[in-house]
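If I may wish for something, please walk me through the protein I am sending here so I can picture the backbone:
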Amino acid sequence: MNFKSASVAINPSEIGYRSLGFGENPGLETTEYELTINVKELTENFLKSADYFIHQCKIDDSQQGFADIENLKGANYASFKRLIENEPNLAATLINDYLYFDLLDSLFPNSKNLKLVVNSINNVVIQKEQITITGETFPFKKL
């Protein structure tokens, strides 16, 4: 995993994420970040959460008689790993729209000695074995 904010490499153990107000204006100066992750670095907990989400979508779609995420139905509700391999744009959309907290929690579980807080995700791209996420961070400040 490689995390850069304002083009400076940051140790992932010094990064947190904003759970309340995620994506909203923090009222602080923000900087752009880029996070690159090898698909092999995705944790089992994240993959289980993603697969559970996909499974729940299948159940919900069956019960309501139509698909909320038509492309997920078109991919036959494949596992998240399989989506990364065969439908990377769909996997990226799922992260961006639904699974971002699961991913951030799995990547940044530390809550002590933080330097930066991820405030938003602007874009997710999956190409081959690499996930690239961009967005904004702000400096961590103790209250």
Observations:
- The chain has one domain: 2-139.
- The first strand starts at residue 2 and ends at 5.
